[in-house]
Amino acid sequence: MSARIEEYALLGDTQTAALVSREGSVDWLCLPRFDSPACFAALLGRPEHGRFLLAPRAEPRRVERRYRQGTLVLETEYETADGVVTVVDAMPPRDRVPDLVRIVQGRHGHVRMLMELTVRFGYGQFAPWIERLAGDVLAVSGPEHSGSRRQSKPGTTKALPRQLSSRSPRESRFPSF
């Protein structure tokens, strides 16, 4: 079950937008534009309809959210029994392709994180075919297209959706674990 609409924060890059719950789940995202079919559509149903969850494994004692002043950069701070972590979410303005950036910043202690990436194209209807390619994972489904890749260094995790050629099938690149 999705969260109540008032519990979502908005990310956007002027051409599309994502909704992020207090629990750390991107439950709505249309790529590459506002009028494109959603690849994360848990807002309309259940997590199986597509979402990108990034949150502490343990139940947080406290959750605090704020936008950086004058921006749509969202900071969500989770306090657990073992420490404090901040997840920074943003969709920076783009030239050609949309980016969804999610960065985990450890504040203190040791907080185990959970990442769950469920892509469902066509408003949650179509599960993609998954293939490993050169350290990435490629997800393909139908004639439409979108994509992402992961860049990671100690202390950060970024998921970056990428729009691919309109002549290619729908594709997404995801992290390999």
Task: Kindly describe this structure.
The protein has 177 residues and is an all-beta fold. The protein has one domain (5-175). 2% of the residues lie in helices and 51% in strands. It has one helix and 15 strands; from the N terminus they run ββββββββββαβββββ. It has one helix spanning 121-124, and strands at residues 8-12, 17-21, 25-30, 38-40, 51-56, 62-67, 74-80, 83-90, 101-109, 113-118, 129-133, 136-140, 147-153, 156-162, 171-175. Strands 1, 2, 3, 4, 5 and 10 form a six-stranded antiparallel sheet that branches. It has a four-stranded antiparallel sheet with strand order 6-7-8-9, with no helix packed on it. Strands 11-12-15 form a three-stranded antiparallel sheet, with no helix packed on it. The chain is globular, with a radius of gyration of 16 Å.
Summarize the structure.
The protein has 177 residues and is mainly beta.
Key phrases:
177 residues; six-stranded antiparallel sheet; four-stranded antiparallel sheet; 15 strands; globular; disordered C terminus
Blueprint (SSEs and pairs):
Elements: E1 8-12, E2 17-21, E3 25-30, E4 38-40, E5 51-56, E6 62-67, E7 74-80, E8 83-90, E9 101-109, E10 113-118, H1 121-124, E11 129-133, E12 136-140, E13 147-153, E14 156-162, E15 171-175
Antiparallel strand pairs: 1-2, 2-3, 3-4, 3-5, 5-10, 6-7, 7-8, 8-9, 11-12, 12-15, 13-14
